[in-house]
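# step 3/5: fold
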Amino acid sequence: MAGPKQARAGRTPGKAGGAAPQRNRQGGSSRQGGQGAGRSRPAQSAGGTPVTEGAKAASPARAAGTGVPRWLPLTTFILSLAGAGLSVYLTYTHYTDTALAGCPVNATVNCAKVTTSPESIIFGVFPVAVLGLAFYVFMVAINSPWAWRADLAVIRWARLAGVLTGIVFVLYLVYVELFKVDAICEYCTGVHVVTFLLFGLIMYSVAARPGPAGKPASR
């Protein structure tokens, strides 16, 4: 008689022990559910649309807060410094009557003829070289990395107004060289090229800037 009782008693712990895997499975499901709940949801844009990985990767290529490529502010700053350097040299030669270095004299290129012509002084008072220097001192300041990072409306408007004024003045000077003086100054042409490049880049920055809804400004 003792044998069957012992057998039943031996099976009882087995049942108790057999319930443990079920609890473990339940515990495992709970842990899996907790891990799933703890996972972060995909980032969404302001309109509720999920942000793709491509958009996340592209965002660092834009300067913070400006909506323009990171290379553009640095490029405009370097161009402004180049224009300022040329303007300093032209101003120096204007007041010292020094010949411009490396500027040949022929039927097309004649720096002295351009820089000493009556048209080289606006209204008989303001030397073109000095006006160019003043313009580029302003452009260096307005196109500095600090000015781009500030991203203030007054700075953006001043930058746009400045480059528009500069390009109009350059077009006038090109007309004077070609049709009145009938000669070209290499250094002056260098200043003109820099101004054209700045005009294109700044106009591009205006077009690339996001509008109120986060979209690029309409052209």
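# step 4/5: annotate
The longest helix spans residues 2-38.
# step 5/5: archive (pending)
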